[in-house]
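Record type: ASSEMBLY
Status: queued
Input:
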Amino acid sequence: MAYSQPHSRVSVLSNSSTASSVEHFSPAASTTRFSLPTTPGLPSRVRPNIYDRNLTKTRIPEVSGAAFTFLFSEMVQYTQKRVSGINDLERRLNTLGYRIGTRVLELMVWRAESQSKAPKREIRFLPALMSIHTQVWRAVFGKPADAIEKSVENADEYMIIDNDPLIERYISVPKDMSQLSCSSFTAGIVEAVLDGLGFPARVTAHNTPTAQAPSRTTILIKLEKSVLEREEVLK
Amino acid sequence: MSHHLFLLSPSDTPLYSLTHFSAKPVQNPTSPLSSNLPNWSTSAFAGTLTALSGASSSGQQSGGHSRVGGGQDRHVIQMIANASLDVIEDLMKTQNAMYLKSVDKFNEWTVSAFITPGNMKFVLLHEGKNDDGIKSFFVDVWELYVKTMLNPFHTAHTPIRSSIFDTRVRASAKKHL
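Status: finished
Output:
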Protein backbone atom coordinates (compact mmCIF):
# COMPACT_ATOMS: atom_id res chain seq x y z
CA MET A 1 0.00 0.00 0.00
CA ALA A 2 2.57 2.47 1.09
CA TYR A 3 4.73 2.00 -1.95
CA SER A 4 2.02 1.67 -4.62
CA GLN A 5 2.46 5.32 -5.54
CA PRO A 6 5.89 6.84 -5.86
CA HIS A 7 6.53 9.03 -2.87
CA SER A 8 5.66 12.65 -3.54
CA ARG A 9 9.10 13.78 -2.47
CA VAL A 10 10.79 11.41 -4.90
CA SER A 11 8.72 12.64 -7.80
CA VAL A 12 9.48 16.24 -6.97
CA LEU A 13 13.19 15.56 -6.85
CA SER A 14 13.15 13.82 -10.22
CA ASN A 15 11.14 16.64 -11.76
CA SER A 16 13.53 19.25 -10.62
CA SER A 17 16.51 17.27 -11.79
CA THR A 18 15.12 16.84 -15.28
CA ALA A 19 14.22 20.49 -15.44
CA SER A 20 17.65 21.56 -14.43
CA SER A 21 19.42 19.07 -16.68
CA VAL A 22 17.98 20.94 -19.64
CA GLU A 23 19.53 24.17 -18.57
CA HIS A 24 22.53 22.50 -17.12
CA PHE A 25 25.02 25.13 -18.15
CA SER A 26 23.11 28.12 -16.99
CA PRO A 27 24.41 29.27 -13.61
CA ALA A 28 20.98 30.32 -12.46
CA ALA A 29 19.63 26.86 -13.04
CA SER A 30 22.53 25.22 -11.28
CA THR A 31 21.76 27.07 -8.07
CA THR A 32 18.19 25.83 -8.11
CA ARG A 33 19.48 22.30 -8.48
CA PHE A 34 20.99 22.48 -5.03
CA SER A 35 18.17 24.28 -3.31
CA LEU A 36 15.58 22.21 -1.53
CA PRO A 37 12.35 21.61 -3.41
CA THR A 38 9.79 24.00 -2.01
CA THR A 39 6.47 22.57 -2.98
CA PRO A 40 3.36 23.54 -1.04
CA GLY A 41 2.50 19.87 -0.54
CA LEU A 42 5.57 19.21 1.58
CA PRO A 43 5.57 20.59 5.08
CA SER A 44 8.92 22.20 5.82
CA ARG A 45 10.43 19.90 8.40
CA VAL A 46 12.99 22.08 10.07
CA ARG A 47 14.22 20.38 13.23
CA PRO A 48 14.09 22.66 16.22
CA ASN A 49 17.32 24.09 17.51
CA ILE A 50 19.02 21.96 20.15
CA TYR A 51 18.42 24.68 22.73
CA ASP A 52 14.69 24.41 22.09
CA ARG A 53 14.57 20.67 22.49
CA ASN A 54 13.87 18.71 25.60
CA LEU A 55 16.72 16.68 27.06
CA THR A 56 14.50 14.28 28.97
CA LYS A 57 13.26 11.33 27.00
CA THR A 58 9.90 9.90 27.83
CA ARG A 59 10.43 6.72 25.88
CA ILE A 60 13.62 4.71 25.65
CA PRO A 61 15.57 6.05 22.71
CA GLU A 62 16.57 3.27 20.40
CA VAL A 63 19.04 3.23 17.56
CA SER A 64 18.88 0.77 14.73
CA GLY A 65 21.38 -1.99 15.42
CA ALA A 66 22.12 -2.48 11.73
CA ALA A 67 22.77 1.22 11.20
CA PHE A 68 25.05 1.39 14.19
CA THR A 69 26.96 -1.72 13.18
CA PHE A 70 27.46 -0.30 9.72
CA LEU A 71 28.67 3.01 11.09
CA PHE A 72 31.02 1.33 13.53
CA SER A 73 32.45 -0.95 10.87
CA GLU A 74 33.17 2.12 8.75
CA MET A 75 34.80 3.79 11.72
CA VAL A 76 37.07 0.82 12.31
CA GLN A 77 37.97 0.59 8.63
CA TYR A 78 38.63 4.31 8.37
CA THR A 79 40.84 4.18 11.42
CA GLN A 80 42.66 1.08 10.28
CA LYS A 81 43.75 2.72 7.04
CA ARG A 82 45.50 5.42 9.01
CA VAL A 83 47.44 3.50 11.61
CA SER A 84 50.63 1.50 11.75
CA GLY A 85 49.68 -1.25 14.17
CA ILE A 86 47.16 -2.76 16.50
CA ASN A 87 48.18 -0.61 19.45
CA ASP A 88 47.74 2.51 17.40
CA LEU A 89 44.37 1.34 16.14
CA GLU A 90 43.16 0.62 19.65
CA ARG A 91 44.41 3.97 20.83
CA ARG A 92 42.49 5.76 18.13
CA LEU A 93 39.31 3.83 18.78
CA ASN A 94 39.77 4.78 22.41
CA THR A 95 39.97 8.45 21.43
CA LEU A 96 36.77 8.14 19.42
CA GLY A 97 35.03 6.54 22.37
CA TYR A 98 36.33 9.26 24.67
CA ARG A 99 34.37 11.84 22.72
CA ILE A 100 31.20 9.83 23.29
CA GLY A 101 31.96 9.29 26.95
CA THR A 102 32.21 12.96 27.87
CA ARG A 103 28.72 13.49 26.46
CA VAL A 104 27.23 10.34 27.91
CA LEU A 105 28.41 11.32 31.38
CA GLU A 106 27.10 14.84 31.25
CA LEU A 107 23.74 13.91 29.75
CA MET A 108 23.20 10.84 31.91
CA VAL A 109 23.84 12.70 35.15
CA TRP A 110 21.74 15.61 33.96
CA ARG A 111 18.80 13.31 33.39
CA ALA A 112 19.23 11.73 36.79
CA GLU A 113 20.04 14.75 38.91
CA SER A 114 18.72 17.95 37.38
CA GLN A 115 15.33 17.65 39.05
CA SER A 116 16.70 16.90 42.48
CA LYS A 117 16.93 19.58 45.12
CA ALA A 118 20.65 19.21 45.62
CA PRO A 119 22.35 17.66 42.60
CA LYS A 120 25.22 15.38 43.54
CA ARG A 121 28.42 14.30 41.89
CA GLU A 122 30.20 11.04 42.55
CA ILE A 123 33.42 11.63 44.45
CA ARG A 124 34.28 8.14 45.68
CA PHE A 125 35.75 5.65 43.28
CA LEU A 126 33.79 2.50 44.02
CA PRO A 127 30.32 4.05 43.68
CA ALA A 128 31.53 5.70 40.50
CA LEU A 129 32.67 2.33 39.16
CA MET A 130 29.32 0.81 40.10
CA SER A 131 27.48 3.56 38.27
CA ILE A 132 29.59 2.94 35.18
CA HIS A 133 28.78 -0.76 35.39
CA THR A 134 25.04 -0.14 35.63
CA GLN A 135 24.02 3.36 34.53
CA VAL A 136 26.56 4.08 31.80
CA TRP A 137 26.17 0.60 30.34
CA ARG A 138 22.41 0.95 30.47
CA ALA A 139 22.54 4.36 28.81
CA VAL A 140 24.86 3.21 26.05
CA PHE A 141 24.06 -0.47 25.52
CA GLY A 142 20.65 -0.83 27.12
CA LYS A 143 21.75 -3.36 29.75
CA PRO A 144 24.16 -3.37 32.69
CA ALA A 145 27.59 -4.94 32.28
CA ASP A 146 28.04 -8.47 33.54
CA ALA A 147 30.62 -8.14 36.28
CA ILE A 148 33.11 -5.96 38.07
CA GLU A 149 36.33 -7.44 39.33
CA LYS A 150 39.22 -6.12 41.33
CA SER A 151 42.70 -7.25 40.49
CA VAL A 152 44.32 -9.44 43.13
CA GLU A 153 47.88 -8.49 42.26
CA ASN A 154 47.53 -4.77 41.69
CA ALA A 155 45.51 -2.52 43.94
CA ASP A 156 45.07 0.05 41.18
CA GLU A 157 43.46 -2.27 38.64
CA TYR A 158 39.75 -2.88 38.21
CA MET A 159 37.89 -4.72 35.51
CA ILE A 160 34.47 -4.41 33.98
CA ILE A 161 33.36 -7.52 32.15
CA ASP A 162 30.87 -7.75 29.34
CA ASN A 163 30.04 -11.26 28.14
CA ASP A 164 28.61 -10.17 24.83
CA PRO A 165 29.63 -6.63 23.89
CA LEU A 166 27.03 -5.09 21.64
CA ILE A 167 29.49 -3.28 19.40
CA GLU A 168 31.44 -6.46 18.66
CA ARG A 169 28.46 -8.64 17.93
CA TYR A 170 29.04 -8.71 14.16
CA ILE A 171 32.79 -8.27 14.17
CA SER A 172 35.11 -11.19 13.60
CA VAL A 173 38.71 -10.21 14.07
CA PRO A 174 41.20 -11.77 11.60
CA LYS A 175 43.59 -14.38 13.05
CA ASP A 176 46.70 -12.26 12.49
CA MET A 177 45.16 -9.43 14.51
CA SER A 178 43.94 -11.59 17.34
CA GLN A 179 45.06 -9.11 20.01
CA LEU A 180 42.76 -6.44 18.64
CA SER A 181 39.69 -5.69 20.66
CA CYS A 182 37.26 -3.25 19.10
CA SER A 183 35.89 -2.68 22.57
CA SER A 184 38.70 -0.17 22.88
CA PHE A 185 35.91 2.13 21.82
CA THR A 186 34.00 1.20 24.96
CA ALA A 187 37.21 1.58 26.95
CA GLY A 188 37.38 5.14 25.66
CA ILE A 189 33.87 5.82 26.92
CA VAL A 190 34.80 4.46 30.35
CA GLU A 191 37.99 6.50 30.38
CA ALA A 192 36.08 9.69 29.60
CA VAL A 193 33.56 9.05 32.35
CA LEU A 194 36.28 8.35 34.91
CA ASP A 195 38.26 11.38 33.78
CA GLY A 196 35.23 13.62 33.99
CA LEU A 197 34.46 12.48 37.52
CA GLY A 198 38.06 13.15 38.50
CA PHE A 199 39.52 9.65 38.50
CA PRO A 200 42.17 9.78 35.78
CA ALA A 201 42.95 6.27 34.57
CA ARG A 202 44.25 4.32 31.63
CA VAL A 203 41.53 2.09 30.27
CA THR A 204 42.12 -0.71 27.78
CA ALA A 205 40.06 -3.55 26.38
CA HIS A 206 41.10 -7.20 26.19
CA ASN A 207 39.55 -10.32 24.77
CA THR A 208 39.01 -12.90 27.46
CA PRO A 209 36.91 -15.59 25.81
CA THR A 210 35.40 -18.44 27.77
CA ALA A 211 33.63 -21.55 26.57
CA GLN A 212 30.18 -20.12 27.26
CA ALA A 213 30.93 -16.59 26.10
CA PRO A 214 33.29 -16.56 23.14
CA SER A 215 33.23 -12.78 22.77
CA ARG A 216 33.69 -12.02 26.47
CA THR A 217 35.60 -8.79 26.85
CA THR A 218 37.35 -7.27 29.83
CA ILE A 219 37.68 -3.53 30.18
CA LEU A 220 40.78 -3.02 32.29
CA ILE A 221 41.02 0.15 34.34
CA LYS A 222 44.43 1.14 35.63
CA LEU A 223 44.02 4.06 37.98
CA GLU A 224 46.54 6.79 38.40
CA LYS A 225 48.35 6.97 41.70
CA SER A 226 46.68 10.24 42.67
CA VAL A 227 43.26 8.54 42.71
CA LEU A 228 44.34 5.93 45.24
CA GLU A 229 45.96 8.57 47.41
CA ARG A 230 42.80 10.60 47.38
CA GLU A 231 40.71 7.57 48.28
CA GLU A 232 42.99 6.98 51.27
CA VAL A 233 42.45 10.56 52.44
CA LEU A 234 38.66 10.35 52.05
CA LYS A 235 38.37 7.08 53.94
CA MET B 1 23.80 44.90 41.77
CA SER B 2 25.88 42.99 39.32
CA HIS B 3 26.68 39.35 38.76
CA HIS B 4 29.63 37.89 36.93
CA LEU B 5 29.50 34.40 35.54
CA PHE B 6 32.45 32.42 34.23
CA LEU B 7 32.35 28.98 32.66
CA LEU B 8 35.67 27.22 33.01
CA SER B 9 36.78 24.08 31.22
CA PRO B 10 38.25 21.13 33.17
CA SER B 11 41.67 22.63 32.52
CA ASP B 12 40.46 25.99 33.83
CA THR B 13 40.38 27.90 30.56
CA PRO B 14 37.48 30.32 30.43
CA LEU B 15 34.92 29.29 27.79
CA TYR B 16 32.24 31.83 28.41
CA SER B 17 31.71 34.84 30.62
CA LEU B 18 28.75 37.04 31.33
CA THR B 19 28.19 40.22 33.29
CA HIS B 20 24.64 40.66 34.40
CA PHE B 21 23.22 43.74 36.02
CA SER B 22 20.26 42.79 38.10
CA ALA B 23 17.31 45.14 37.93
CA LYS B 24 16.05 44.18 41.37
CA PRO B 25 17.98 45.92 44.17
CA VAL B 26 20.05 49.07 44.67
CA GLN B 27 20.71 51.22 41.67
CA ASN B 28 24.36 51.50 40.83
CA PRO B 29 25.66 54.92 41.77
CA THR B 30 27.44 56.01 38.62
CA SER B 31 30.99 56.96 39.35
CA PRO B 32 31.49 60.71 39.70
CA LEU B 33 34.18 60.80 37.04
CA SER B 34 32.16 59.12 34.33
CA SER B 35 29.04 61.23 34.88
CA ASN B 36 30.94 64.33 33.80
CA LEU B 37 32.01 62.80 30.53
CA PRO B 38 29.95 62.09 27.43
CA ASN B 39 28.63 58.59 26.90
CA TRP B 40 30.99 57.52 24.14
CA SER B 41 34.08 58.26 26.17
CA THR B 42 32.95 56.34 29.23
CA SER B 43 32.23 53.25 27.26
CA ALA B 44 35.65 53.21 25.66
CA PHE B 45 37.55 53.79 28.87
CA ALA B 46 35.18 52.11 31.27
CA GLY B 47 37.89 50.03 32.89
CA THR B 48 40.29 52.87 33.47
CA LEU B 49 37.59 55.19 34.67
CA THR B 50 36.16 52.86 37.25
CA ALA B 51 39.63 52.03 38.47
CA LEU B 52 40.31 55.72 38.82
CA SER B 53 37.02 56.47 40.48
CA GLY B 54 37.52 53.61 42.88
CA ALA B 55 40.87 55.09 43.87
CA SER B 56 39.52 58.61 44.23
CA SER B 57 36.44 57.61 46.20
CA SER B 58 38.50 55.78 48.77
CA GLY B 59 40.42 58.99 49.33
CA GLN B 60 37.40 61.23 49.57
CA GLN B 61 34.83 59.27 51.50
CA SER B 62 36.73 57.17 53.98
CA GLY B 63 35.19 53.72 53.64
CA GLY B 64 31.72 55.08 52.88
CA HIS B 65 30.83 52.46 50.34
CA SER B 66 33.35 49.81 49.50
CA ARG B 67 32.09 48.76 46.08
CA VAL B 68 34.99 48.83 43.68
CA GLY B 69 33.77 50.95 40.79
CA GLY B 70 30.30 49.43 40.88
CA GLY B 71 31.75 46.05 39.98
CA GLN B 72 32.83 47.03 36.52
CA ASP B 73 36.45 46.47 37.24
CA ARG B 74 37.08 43.66 34.81
CA HIS B 75 40.56 42.65 35.88
CA VAL B 76 39.72 42.64 39.58
CA ILE B 77 36.66 40.50 38.91
CA GLN B 78 38.70 38.04 36.91
CA MET B 79 41.34 37.91 39.60
CA ILE B 80 38.78 37.16 42.30
CA ALA B 81 37.22 34.44 40.17
CA ASN B 82 40.61 32.92 39.48
CA ALA B 83 41.67 33.10 43.09
CA SER B 84 38.56 31.25 44.18
CA LEU B 85 39.50 28.26 42.03
CA ASP B 86 41.91 26.98 44.68
CA VAL B 87 39.14 26.86 47.25
CA ILE B 88 36.74 25.30 44.76
CA GLU B 89 39.18 22.57 43.86
CA ASP B 90 39.77 21.73 47.50
CA LEU B 91 36.05 21.61 48.22
CA MET B 92 35.06 19.56 45.21
CA LYS B 93 37.31 16.74 46.37
CA THR B 94 35.48 16.35 49.64
CA GLN B 95 31.94 17.55 48.90
CA ASN B 96 29.69 15.72 46.53
CA ALA B 97 27.21 18.52 45.97
CA MET B 98 27.41 20.14 42.56
CA TYR B 99 26.35 23.51 43.89
CA LEU B 100 28.96 24.92 46.23
CA LYS B 101 27.52 28.04 47.74
CA SER B 102 29.59 30.97 48.99
CA VAL B 103 32.93 29.26 48.69
CA ASP B 104 34.95 32.44 48.85
CA LYS B 105 34.63 36.08 49.79
CA PHE B 106 36.55 39.12 48.68
CA ASN B 107 35.46 42.57 49.82
CA GLU B 108 31.83 42.82 48.76
CA TRP B 109 32.00 39.84 46.42
CA THR B 110 30.82 36.39 47.27
CA VAL B 111 31.84 33.52 45.02
CA SER B 112 29.52 30.59 44.38
CA ALA B 113 30.34 27.70 42.13
CA PHE B 114 28.74 24.79 40.36
CA ILE B 115 30.68 21.73 39.26
CA THR B 116 29.21 19.58 36.52
CA PRO B 117 29.90 15.84 36.52
CA GLY B 118 32.21 16.39 33.56
CA ASN B 119 34.29 18.73 35.72
CA MET B 120 33.22 21.98 34.15
CA LYS B 121 33.21 24.78 36.66
CA PHE B 122 30.65 27.56 36.69
CA VAL B 123 31.86 30.42 38.88
CA LEU B 124 29.53 33.24 39.86
CA LEU B 125 30.50 36.44 41.65
CA HIS B 126 27.61 38.09 43.39
CA GLU B 127 27.04 40.68 46.06
CA GLY B 128 23.86 39.70 47.83
CA LYS B 129 22.62 36.42 49.29
CA ASN B 130 20.29 34.55 46.98
CA ASP B 131 21.01 30.82 47.37
CA ASP B 132 17.89 29.44 45.74
CA GLY B 133 17.94 31.84 42.84
CA ILE B 134 21.58 31.11 42.16
CA LYS B 135 20.96 27.39 42.34
CA SER B 136 18.14 27.59 39.80
CA PHE B 137 20.31 29.78 37.61
CA PHE B 138 23.17 27.28 37.74
CA VAL B 139 20.87 24.37 36.92
CA ASP B 140 19.57 26.32 33.91
CA VAL B 141 23.09 27.06 32.74
CA TRP B 142 23.94 23.40 33.23
CA GLU B 143 21.09 22.34 30.98
CA LEU B 144 22.20 24.81 28.32
CA TYR B 145 25.75 23.58 28.66
CA VAL B 146 24.71 19.93 28.28
CA LYS B 147 22.90 20.90 25.09
CA THR B 148 25.98 22.71 23.81
CA MET B 149 28.07 19.70 24.71
CA LEU B 150 25.89 17.43 22.57
CA ASN B 151 27.19 19.19 19.48
CA PRO B 152 29.73 16.76 18.03
CA PHE B 153 32.00 19.65 17.07
CA HIS B 154 32.12 20.94 20.60
CA THR B 155 34.86 19.70 22.92
CA ALA B 156 35.29 20.40 26.60
CA HIS B 157 37.81 23.07 25.64
CA THR B 158 35.94 24.94 22.91
CA PRO B 159 34.87 28.47 23.79
CA ILE B 160 31.08 28.81 23.64
CA ARG B 161 30.14 31.38 21.03
CA SER B 162 26.55 30.44 20.29
CA SER B 163 24.33 33.50 20.38
CA ILE B 164 21.35 31.37 21.39
CA PHE B 165 23.30 30.07 24.37
CA ASP B 166 24.10 33.64 25.30
CA THR B 167 20.48 34.78 24.99
CA ARG B 168 19.24 31.85 27.05
CA VAL B 169 21.77 32.41 29.82
CA ARG B 170 20.86 36.09 29.95
CA ALA B 171 17.17 35.27 30.10
CA SER B 172 17.76 32.86 32.97
CA ALA B 173 19.91 35.43 34.76
CA LYS B 174 17.13 37.96 34.44
CA LYS B 175 14.68 35.48 35.88
CA HIS B 176 16.67 34.13 38.82
CA LEU B 177 19.29 36.71 39.81
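Annotation: Chain B is about 45% helix and 20% strand.
Annotation: Chain B has two domains: 2-22+76-176, 32-64.
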